[in-house]
């Protein structure tokens, strides 16, 4: 999708901060953390992934998924794929592709504070 004139993609802003402010190379990126996620699509994906994992009704949503432990066809792999397909998962994947980070999402964490953390290796 083309950018509107004068607008930047969030991935461009994020990497600009990473490069200019932190003075780091894109290949140094190991973790992408989104604090207190309220974005609707991503929240729905987190709830759906949690349900796939067997969350109790009214339980808080806290989980960690590691791709190495998520066998094809398993509930863990299904939940992992759901979160990666969310808006913030796709943004993280876009960073990887657009800035040639050459890493994959290997771990996803959802904290009790509604933080979403992607580990790249």
Task: Give structural notes.
The protein is α+β, with helices and mostly antiparallel strands. It has one domain (31-120). Helix content is 39%, strand content 16%. It is built from four helices and four strands; from the N terminus they run H-E-H-E-H-H-E-E. It has helices at residues 10-21, 40-52, 75-84, 87-98, and strands spanning 31-34, 63-66, 105-110, 116-120. Strands 1-4-3-2 form a four-stranded antiparallel β-sheet, covered by helices on one side. Strand 3 (105-110) and strand 4 form a beta hairpin. Helix 1 (10-21) crosses helix 4 and helix 2 packs antiparallel against helix 3 (75-84). The longest helix has 13 residues, at 40-52. It is globular. The model has no long low-confidence stretch (mean pLDDT 87).
Summarize the structure.
The chain has one domain.
Task: Itemize the secondary structure elements and their pairings.
Blueprint: H1 10-21, E1 31-34, H2 40-52, E2 63-66, H3 75-84, H4 87-98, E3 105-110, E4 116-120
Antiparallel strand pairs: 1-4, 2-3, 3-4
Helix pairs in contact: 1-4, 2-3
Key attributes of the depicted protein:
39% helix, alpha+beta, four-stranded antiparallel β-sheet, 4 helices
Biggest sheet architecture: 4 strands, antiparallel
Rounded Rg: 15 Å
User: How do the helices and strands follow one another from N- to C-terminus?
Assistant: HEHEHHEE
Q: Work out the helicity level.
A: 25-40%
* Total beta strand runs: 4
Low-confidence stretches: none
Total helical segments: 4
């Amino acid at each position: 999708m083309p950018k509107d004139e004068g607008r930047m993609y969030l991935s461009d802003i994020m990497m600009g901060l990473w490069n200019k402010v932190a003075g780091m190379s894109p290949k140094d990126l190991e973790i992408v953390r989104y604090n207190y996620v309220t974005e609707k699509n991503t929240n729905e994906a987190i709830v759906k992934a949690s349900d796939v994992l067997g969350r109790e009704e009214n339980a808080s949503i806290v989980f960690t998924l590691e791709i190495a432990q998520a066998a094809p066809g398993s509930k863990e792999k299904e939940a992992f794929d759901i979160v990666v397909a969310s808006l913030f998962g796709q943004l993280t994947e876009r960073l990887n592709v657009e800035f040639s980070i050459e890493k994959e999402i290997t771990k996803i964490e959802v904290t009790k504070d509604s933080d979403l953390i992607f580990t790249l290796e």
